[in-house]
């Protein structure tokens, strides 16, 4: 379908991705109305419509995220402790996280949040690299968000 130019996309933000009902316009002008089962989360690349003449695919919008990378020169005992402390501190802020290898990603709204996290993790700075990037953020499925 891609070779024949039959793929259309709809842009969906992370916050919109859990909505039960939404209406979007595809990149080629197709009006798309979605009614999804409760608990559904649209992910980047999900196909929401498929016909012989077109396929409509979800394109999640990139957003600002902080990346905390555990440096490779850390000893295994340090990695366990670092993982627990970093997870605990981010968890206390009720941030969704995404894990990739030695890196923890979580959404941020402003650059000033990086300063806060640099202060928060200052005692561990020789083991961590904290940066800001823009990417499609999809929380790791095994890690459930919750409220108190």
Summary, kept brief:
With 148 residues, the protein is of the alpha+beta class. It is built from two helices and nine strands, in the order ββββββαββαβ. It has two domains: 7-60, HSP40/DNAj peptide-binding domain (Sandwich), CATH 2.60.260.20; 63-135, 2-Layer Sandwich (Alpha-Beta Plaits), CATH 3.30.70.
How would you describe this structure in keywords?
single chain; three-stranded mixed beta sheet; 2 domains; four-stranded antiparallel beta sheet; alpha+beta; HSP40/DNAj peptide-binding domain; elongated; Alpha-Beta Plaits; 148 residues
Classified by CATH, the class of the largest domain is: Alpha Beta
Biggest sheet features: 4 strands, antiparallel
Question: What is the beta-strand fraction?
Answer: 35-45%
Distance between the termini: 46 Å
Instruction: Count the beta strands.
Output: 9
Structural class: alpha+beta
* Cα gyration radius (Å): 19 Å
Number of helices: 2
Given as residue ranges, the uncertain stretches (5+ residues, pLDDT < 50) are none
* CATH level-four homologous superfamily name of the largest domain: Reverse transcriptase/Diguanylate cyclase domain
Helix content: 10-25%
Notes on the structure:
The protein is an alpha+beta fold and 148 residues long. It has two domains: 54 residues, Sandwich (HSP40/DNAj peptide-binding domain), CATH 2.60.260.20; 73 residues, Alpha-Beta Plaits (2-Layer Sandwich), CATH 3.30.70.270. The chain is built from two helices and nine strands; from the N terminus they run ββββββαββαβ. The strands form three sheets. A four-stranded antiparallel sheet has the order 7-8-6-9. The chain has a three-stranded mixed sheet with strand order 1-5-4, with no helix packed on it. A hairpin with a 2-residue loop joins strand 7 and strand 8. The radius of gyration is 19 Å and the shape is elongated. The chain starts with 6 loop residues before the first strand and ends in a 13-residue tail after the last strand. The model has no long low-confidence stretch (mean pLDDT 88).
């Amino acid at each position: 379908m891609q070779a024949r130019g039959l793929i259309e996309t709809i842009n969906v933000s992370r916050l919109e991705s859990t909505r039960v009902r939404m209406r979007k316009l595809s990149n080629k002008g197709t009006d798309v109305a979605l009614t999804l089962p409760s608990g559904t989360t649209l992910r980047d690349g999900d196909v929401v419509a498929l016909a012989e003449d077109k396929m409509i695919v979800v394109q999640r919008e990139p957003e600002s995220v902080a990346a905390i990378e555990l440096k490779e020169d850390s000893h295994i005992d340090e990695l366990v402790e670092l993982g627990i402390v970093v997870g605990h501190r981010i968890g206390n802020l009720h941030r969704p996280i995404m894990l990739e290898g030695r890196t923890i990603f979580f959404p941020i709204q402003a650059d000033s949040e990086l300063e806060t996290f640099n202060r928060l993790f200052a005692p561990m700075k020789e083991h961590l690299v904290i940066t800001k990037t823009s990417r499609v953020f999809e929380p790791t499925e095994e890690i459930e968000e919750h409220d108190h």
